[in-house]
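Hey team,

Sharing the Inner membrane ABC transporter ATP-binding protein YddA run so nobody has to redo it. Sequence (582 residues) first:
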Amino acid sequence: MTRLITALTVMWRLAAPYFRSAEDRRAGRLLLAAVIAIELAIVGITVLVNQWNARFYNALQERAWDTFVSELLYFCVLAAAFIVLAVYQLYLNQWLQIRWRRWMTAQYLGHWLDDGNHYRMQLLGDAADNPDQRIADDINLFIDRGLAIGLGLLSSVVTLASFVTILWSLSAQAPLVIGGTTWSFPGYLVWAALIYAVVGTVFTHLIGRPLIGLNFQQQRYEADFRFHLVRVRENGEQIALLGGETAERARLLDRFGAVMANWYAIMTRQKKLTFFTAGFNQVSTVFPFVVVSPAYFAGGFSLGGLMQTSEAFSSVQRALSFFVTSYRQLAEWQAVIDRLAGFDAALTAGRALATVPERIVVSAEPDAEAVAAEALEVRLPAGTPLVAADALVLPAGVRVLVGGPSGSGKSTLFRALAGVWPFGRGRVSVPAGRSVMVLPQRPYLPVGTLAAAIAYPALPDAFPRDRVTEVLGTVGLGGLADRLDEEAHWGRMLSLGEQQRLAIARAILHAPDYLFLDEATASLDEPSETALYGLLRRRLPETALISIGHRSTLMPLHDRHVVLERDGNLHRLREATGAPGA
Ligand SMILES: Nc1ncnc2c1ncn2[C@@H]1O[C@H](COP(=O)(O)OP(=O)(O)OP(=O)(O)O)[C@@H](O)[C@H]1O
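Structure output:
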């Protein structure tokens, strides 16, 4: 029971915001009201059809031709109304689904992407596996199944209320007579239907309960398998060069093994459940007749009455067995709710990480003249100290080379200065209104046109075309100028050196105040690297360049040289002796 209440609370927390949203609540509420109204109208038609049953079968029994014809016509009217309602119910339901889904997707994308939360969530580890599945599949399933189950439940409750009344009065008309003795008691047909359905529900629940967890796991294993397939696709070149196909196949089959093992468990459980539900459904066809037959054969009941009673009995029993028939859907839905709730929690944890008391605080200071780190200690997510930078000051236009052994924490220090690495303590102040750009060794090039890849993160047409062409020429990629509108996976097509040139072109177009280059030219030959640094110097004279690099040829291209040196259990940033470039 507490589980049910928790599930309902979580469901409400996930579903309600859409119907309260400023953007779409009117349309959402209207569509929902229409879908509910149609559902109720359909139940109304079922009640009318039930009453029609009595009249129609009586007309057949009495061979009353005129009544038969008029009842047939009446049925046609009901059927026509039912068809129109069924069509519009589906149509409006789908309309509601896509609007609701658009809203929820936008919300989740916002919470995931805003303010670097996706990256912090990733740093937190396995808190939210496969966010893509949460956003693409789970939101869809939550809405689709939620509406189906919600409307099914509503329809069952209303059907139950309507038909229990009918069945109650029919119980009085059809006394239960066995062996000449009357055994009936008020509403005995209702009680029979109730007991039958409750037995079914209890057994279904007992047999089917493990399906909730199994379905949850299944989705997870499937997503995991898909994720690893995508990894292989993305790293195809490396795998082919290393001849890693056999290892990959083994790894993928291993992942698939988990999919299969869980699937077997689902199959076994499903088999048990289907044995029960299929049997239950078969018995349901004849059970009402069995219950009413004593009254019918005792002679006090017409054929119409029998048919109406069996129909009403079936409706009550169907409504009561709603839980039995939709158990699989409910199990799946419960798993979806659990996953979305888990994703929600991970989103919140990611956001909370940005505001924990002990973290690296990066703030924009109106009076600051330089990027400055004060008592900065950068740590790993697990809390291990990595880098200490007591008093780093990077004035505008400075050119600093950051050195230090591999793994000493240079890239992590850049992440901390750029404000995406919260683990640690101390402060970083950035002059307000100054822009910062970080170029990593392997730049991110979104799939799309080349123009979009260069302009990223600005919009594809943010820079005049002739300027883009000219800048491409200056970084040595003039040959690509006439392919700016070509859509491709540029990150795979261009060599790493070309990608690095492209990233330099991006930096020149954006002209940031602070440009951090994390081995951003390491794939270029030394003369090209020197030429590109010269270009940056000429094109962005005001921009501070802070580079990480291991080559000694970088030294003369910078004014200052700082290094990370081991100091106890961490590396400390110190000014290196001997000014580079001197
Ligand atoms: N997300 C993370 N979780 C745990 N450890 C991490 C994470 N990111 C980096 N590290 C660890 O922090 C240490 C410093 O990594 P970092 O990439 O900053 O070093 P680096 O000095 O830039 O190295 P290189 O010169 O080889 O590029 C490494 O030991 C690395 O394994």
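The chain has three domains: 1-174+310-355, 177-300, 361-575.

Ping me if you want the raw files.
A.
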